[in-house]
Structure formats: C-alpha cells, structure tokens
Design goal:
The chain is of the alpha+beta class. The chain has 2 domains: 186 residues, Helix Hairpins (Orthogonal Bundle); 168 residues, Glucose Permease (Domain IIA) (Distorted Sandwich). Strands 1, 2, 3, 4, 5, 6, 7, 8, 9 and 10 form a 10-stranded antiparallel beta sheet that branches. A hairpin with a 2-residue loop joins strand 5 and strand 6. Helix 2 packs antiparallel against helix 6.
Length: 390
Amino acid sequence: MKLLGHVLVRSALAATLVAGGLIGPGALRAQADDEAALNAVRAEIEALERRIGRQTVARDANAESLRQTELRIAAVNGELARLRARAREQQERRETLAGQAREAEDRLAVEREALARQVRMSYMTGRQELFRLLLSQETPAGLGRMVAWYDYFNRARTGRIAAVSGELSTLSQLRAEAAEIESELAVLRAAEEAELEALDATRAERSAVLARVEASMDESGDEMARLRGEERRLVDLLASLGEVMAAFPVEAGVPFSDLRGRLSWPVSGRLAADYGQPRGAGALRWNGVLLDSAPGTAVRALYHGRVAYSDWLPGLGLLVILDHGDGYMSLYGHNDALLKSPGDAVTTGEAIAQVGDTGGRAEPSLYFEIRRNGEPVNPHSWISGTPSVN
C-alpha cells in the first residue's frame, strides 16, 4: 500500500512537471526506464539472496540457525540505530528550543521593563494632565504639541503591550514544543530499552548456535574444506552479481581504476590479518584484510557505487557488497547491522553497516576486500596509508 502511494505521488508529480513544460516526455520516459531497470535488478538480487538461503539450509542446519539469529541481530541493531538517530535529532532540537526560549525570555524582560517605565511615567504625569492643559489657556500651538506627544506616548505603550503579548505567545509555543519533544524522547528511550532486551536474548541464542557450530567443526575436523567451500560460494555469488549489476551500471564519475592509492579505509582499527597471508594450515591465503575495531563502529563506503548485496553469507556473516563499475566491487563482512539495501546508491564515505562479530567471529572486526572481475586485488594498492587505531 505504501509503495502504491509512492507510485501515485511520483506519477502526479511527473504529470505536473510535463504539463508545466519543466521536463519533457523523453526525460520522463528515461526516468521510468531507470526505475524499471532498478526494480528488476533488486528483484534479481532478492531472488539470488533467497537461493543462497535455501542452499545454506540444505548444506548445514547449524549454519542456517546462525544465519537466522544474526539476521535478527542485524534487524535489532538497525532499529537501534534508527531510534538513536531520531533521539539525537530530538535532543538537538530540544537544545535549540531551549536557546530560543532563553532569547524570548530576555526579550520579554526588556519589553516588560520598558512598559513598566511607561506606566510609571504616565502615573507621574497624571491622568488629568491633558484636561488641565485644556483649562490652562495654553497657546493653541503649545496645546497641539502636547496632544501630539500624548498620542505618541499612547501608541508607544500600545506597541509595548503588543510586544509583550507576542513574546508571551512565542514562549508558550516553545514550551509546548519542548514538552512534546520530552514526551517523544521518553518513548524513544523506552523503545531502545526494549530493543536492547531483545538484542541480549538474541545474542544468547546466537552463543548457543555458535557452540553447536564449533562442536560440529570439531567432529568433522576439516576446517580447510569449510574455508574452501565458503570461498567457492563467494566466488559464485560475485559472478552472479556481476551479471545482475551489468543491467544497471554505476552512474558516471571518476573511474575506480583512476583512484589507486587515493582511497581511505572503511574503518579505523588494528590489522589482524593481511592480504596474502596464509589462512589456516593449508594453502589458502587471505583475499582481503581483517580489521579489529570497536563494535558498532560505522563502516563507510570505499567509493561511490551501488549496493549489490546486503545479506548473510556463510563465513562472512552479515555482508555488504558494493559495485563501483568497470568490474570493481568492494566487500564488507562480519557486520552486526546492515544500513543499506540492494540497489541503493551510496556515496564515498557514507555509512553502510556497523562493525560486528557475525559469521562466527570471536571479536568484533571488519573483513574487507576489493575485487576486479571477481578476482581479489591487494587493497593496500588502492588505499592511502595503513590501518590505524582510533
């Protein structure tokens, strides 16, 4: 229903723009084609994600249990991020209102003092002063000046009274809005507490699932076979994504290939595993880097592009894959919250996820790769400087 409402609004807006000559029919058709292509891409990615989910169930029930619990953790963390962002906005608004209220109170004090001076002056002059002047046989010119002065004085006093009334009304409105914000903040705090309780319960469930996964690994004793299987699934996923995303290329900009050595790390943290280092006891090597970082740290997009994947994958947990065009993709794994959806456009440095420990990690960390046509490349060649601790 909400989607239908958005479509109707866009259609009405587009019709208005065409009727007013602000956009041409050709531009409108191009926009519709782009939206249709993007929706088709999103549908294909969602189908791909469902297929991966079914394969996970077929291969390993424990992995599917881990997937479900970590997806629930991601949903809770995403909602917490939304609640906290809203709370920050309201707290900033509350501070702004408090400042405006102080300014209104200062102006009110000034107006009240000015009005009080006028009242005292009127009292000292006496209410019958003008009448006495009429009987004092003053010259017409002097009487005219005095009448004009009284008229000015009365208009000034009326203006002061109106100013005081206006400041009182402004102050009342500010206080009412501040009270509404306080009420919403209380609701947000209660919602956050409820989400934290849900998160604790889900993390406890996740710990039990991880214990079963580790026990299963101990029984099989073939860690390298598991790692090779996870690498094959990732390679297959990247190949499928490459085909899907070809239907909706990244918007033009500086080509990714021209940015070698000029990009920034997606998070700051300690380098726990580096590209090319041996991984386990076999011949496998790390295709990216593992950066230990604080849980909840914002993971930022390496460069502008489009979200090609935002879901769970065995071995990498909650994973985001960005398509940067020309066959380049960047991968961000082990997150505990996914802030973007497939098809979303992102800008350089935009937060796309949060550091976590999903996918079987013992400590919060980010796994990060850069790939060209599905093949891993050394990220150090593309990024300026070395990872550092905040």
